[in-house]
Amino acid sequence: MNQMLIIDDDIEACETMESLITRQSHACFMANTLKVGLEYLNTNNIDVVFLDVHLPDGNGLDILPAIMALEDPPEVIILTGKGDPDGAELAIKGGVWDYILKPSSVREITLTLNRALKYRKEKTARSEQQHLDLSSVVGISPGIKTCLQLTSKAARADANVLITGETGTGKELFARTIHQNSQRADQKFVVIDCASLTESLVESTLFGHRKGSFTGAQSDQLGLVKLADGGTLFLDELGEMPLSLQKVFLRVLQERHFRPVGAAQEETSNFRLIAATNRDLDLMVEEGDFRSDLLFRINTMHIRLPPVRKRTEDIKPLILARMKYLKENYGMAPKKLGDDFVKTLVSYDWPGNVRELFNILERAMVNAEDENTLFSVHISRELRIQVAKAQIKQMTGSEVTGNDGFSTNDGVRKIGHEIFNDIFDRPLPPLKEFKGMTEKIYLSEMIRQCNGDIAPILKKSELSRSHFYSLLKKYGLSL
């Protein structure tokens, strides 16, 4: 018996759906808010979820990453009373099974449900037959779990794969993971760095050459495309491939035929293609910098890797995994992590993503020398300054209006600037004095956010009325 969950605040619609589902001998449960629905999903094995978009505590589409991150995520059918093309696009990108409008006929809902159940049954059978090794990818965040699900599908197939993401997000790692779990795992994984291909040697590099075909060609040489025969060809930095080469490579992808430089006959190569880029290929197509037909050919499956700033819950697992790697390969002893160490790293924006994180970690371990615990002080001063400034900006809502970069007519912003600007480059004040200054910032900002209304101020700050007024007097503040 399959188990269904309806997340919808429309009681009448829930009861209608429940009647339809139970008539097919399935178990059915109902939740009228996203919070209750997620709690139920986290504690029960659900096969199919009927999810409304507009709910009292939020938008149903916002919880799709959390649903897809479950160990065995259910099939999701969006059921809403409002037609929304953009919402439909977001839902499909989020991995839902279908998107149908209320009211829909019993027949339409039944057909959609039965198709989803059939797909789920076949998917479960495939999963039981093939156990993949995804241990090289570290992460517990919903975004990474969604990527791992797509990686599993890509490994079982032989289709072209496009992996996109910012610099340092691990595109080559995912490409190698797909290869190592595919039917081609015992063959070569050949990397072509499109950014390093030179116009003069590109054809020789890719397709090889015959002896005497040009000056310096003293012997026959296989190209990278031929080396990947039977294995995987990984095009790194695809967005950097010159237009002149894109046309040539398109034919290779379509026909799997190519001609080495100086050869009279064409050769073949049976490779599986995986490509990666940090650029927006759709935008490049619009601007005429990338061929649309090549993009169509490559983009059979698409894996979008999230940046570290959107998966901060993965920072600590990534650090622990990297320390284990450094111990096994370089003999560096692992260290304990101080609370302030992890907190500082989580607050950073990580423009270089995982690659930058590993670099910062290694520098911190070197700075710590024989100490057993990593603290914030072991992190580079430049990073700590950036974190401190970002935190103050977020807390005060400061805007660049004065010569010093902060509003000159807003006391709290000026105080915040004076306290934290280059905080690590000058002596700290006594702790008592520092606490007083930060307490004044907090109270000033609370007054600003609550527009001087005493009731919400007392509720949010959890201060008593008498204590609050004594603090106002102490710091010379007013409502």
What labels would you give this structure?
Helicase, Ruva Protein, domain 3; 4 domains; Rossmann fold; 479 residues; 18 strands; 20 helices; single chain; five-stranded parallel beta sheet
Could you please describe the fold and organization of this structure?
The protein has 479 residues and is of the alpha/beta class. The chain has four domains: 127 residues, Response regulator (Rossmann fold); 165 residues, P-loop containing nucleotide triphosphate hydrolases (Rossmann fold, 3-Layer(aba) Sandwich), CATH 3.40.50; 71 residues, Helicase, Ruva Protein, domain 3, CATH 1.10.8; 51 residues. Helix content is 47%, strand content 13%. It is built from 20 helices and 18 strands. The strands form six sheets. A five-stranded parallel β-sheet has the order 2-1-3-6-7, with helices on both faces. A hairpin with an 8-residue loop joins β13 and β14. α10 packs across α12 and α17 packs antiparallel against α18. The longest helix is centred in the N-terminal third of the chain and has 24 residues. The protein is globular, with a radius of gyration of 29 Å. The termini are far apart.
